[in-house]
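agent> Task received from the user: take the single chain below, predict its 3D structure, and emit structure tokens. No templates, no multimer pairing.
agent> Plan: (1) validate residues, (2) run structure prediction, (3) serialize to tokens, (4) report one or two observations.
agent> Step 1 OK, no nonstandard residues flagged.
tool_call: predict_structure(input=
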Amino acid sequence: MHDRLRSARLAFGAFLAILAQPAAGGGPQTIRMKGSDSIDPMVRLWIQAFQRDRPDIRFTVESKGSGTAPTALIQEEAEIGHTNRSVHEKETGAARSAEGW
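)
tool_result: status=success, residues=101
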């Protein structure tokens, strides 16, 4: 369990570092997140920790269930889809179809 949590923290931190590059035009950047309601408290803690170093980055968080994450990513309604489970094959297939893989 601790290894999975550590891996999740590292992955989330690396992903945010990539997303948090200065926005074009220099204005504040907003990162949209959608997904799991069960890990919402942890997501909000990650955001608070991240914003200590990067207060210029804003977040919107919508936590309505893990199944909303892949759909939000495919439909470009979020930059981060947070989920507490593995992505189902049908969700992976939908992503591949949307991206033309």
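agent> Step 4: summary for the user.
The chain has one domain: 28-99.
agent> Done.
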